[in-house]
Amino acid sequence: MTFKVAIIGRPNVGKSTLFNRLVGRKLALVDDTPGVTRDRRVHAAKLYDLHFDVIDTAGFEDAAASTLPGRMRAQTEIAIREADLIFFTIDAKSGLMPDDKTFAEIVRKSGKPVVVVANKAEARGAQGGMLEAWELGLGEPIPVSAEHGQGLPDLRDAVIAALGEARAFGEEEGDADEETAASEVLIGEDITDPDAEPSYDDTKPMRIAVVGRPNAGKSTVINALIGEERLLTGPEAGITRDSISVDWDWHGRRLKLFDTAGMRRKARIHEKLEVMSVQDGLRAIRFAEIVIIVLDATIPFEKQDLQIADLIIREGRAPVIAFNKWDMIDHPQELLAELREKTERLLPQARGMQAVPVSAETGRGLDKLMDAVIKTHRVWNSRVSTGKLNRWLEGILAHHPPPAVAGRRLKIKYVTQAKTRPPGFVVSCSRPDAMPQSYVRYLSNSLREAFDMPGVPIRIALRTSE
Ligand code: GDP
Ligand code: GDP
Asked: What is known about what this protein does (predicted)?
């Protein structure tokens, strides 16, 4: 069962453009020819590995033009009723208009899963509209340019987040083209040219977020990193405006920090106004590439800390730990050794995670923390050429080949990297379903070692080589 998407929004936000982008113009025409049994108003669409139907609302607007706004509303409601998921589309370039709120209200009332598409995001000044889109209360706006085909990977991720994996991939995932199915279960960014020289772009701003339990010192860390004056551009600025990110640079490296107004406000007036909600935490993690987990070194590794680290890793982001309040520690050497050992033991999913002692209050350790963040970001972006991978594989097969299952030895043919951010590999083998999890873990650890990828999630997908 595929799911149905309705693209909803006021006129001119780019719904038709998005529709065409998802459906592909040709496909739309083909579907429109008589004799095709498929419902004419529903068109097959594709977003990378997601296959779904888009409800065509193209006719609705004509109706609206010649009749009452009420009619348009009714038509929108029909489309919403049919849909499993709504792409609520706004024009980030022009910003929110009163009509956007009217449509948002209809969408909200439907109770259907929604992805807010902030279209025309490539346009100058779209950032403001992006921020405004949060006000709709329909969740995180996804910046997209339907016209230029930008932001589509994030749109894909948002669809999966909104529907859940099982629903997004339908029940017939296994029926999908075997050639690509395996790499599609990996998250992250597609590698377009696997043989291109690995490169790392350090001119683009790196997106980071700071998370942790209440009182761990998140606000103090943020302020120490950025400096208060950078946060507060006017007497009211940092206080009244809820913004999602702050740009700054650290020794020339451009950064974008996910920021909740609550955190800044609190730090400034030294009061416990609010704690970061779970919702905020998740939003921050999804926003970020690298997530700094601030732990209070005097009470580290509570259950919540581990849960948050696990969530970061599952979301495919890379965690970096800051052991804060280090100024209060009596035997720093011993404690650091102990905490690092604990990190490895408690969080084996991202072995080799960077963990740095800091004192946000005195500023000590922050340089090292940021070095660790930058290093981790590089690793998270890393790429290994197919040639190197298969030379590595030869060694593995010679010294620690896969086990025999039911008397037949499992064979591995080759390995390629299909994704970065985080690194994701496709292992082509004789019987993927028979491959023991322990062996997959062994491969992942060995890849991590061989290609120096500490502290980031590494994904492996198996695919059949026959
Ligand atoms: P609809 O009325 O919501 O279906 O909007 P259309 O798809 O007809 O688009 C309205 C206008 O916005 C057209 O002039 C499009 O070319 C333009 N447009 C659509 N998507 C984008 C985009 O991503 N960026 C920019 N700059 N313009 C866009
Ligand atoms: P948040 O709730 O995680 O944002 O934590 P805050 O930044 O508000 O800090 C909580 C408390 O810990 C405040 O009283 C801070 O002054 C204190 N604190 C934060 N960082 C440090 C530090 O490095 N050393 C010490 N001794 N106290 C700190």
From this structure: GTPase that plays an essential role in the late steps of ribosome biogenesis.
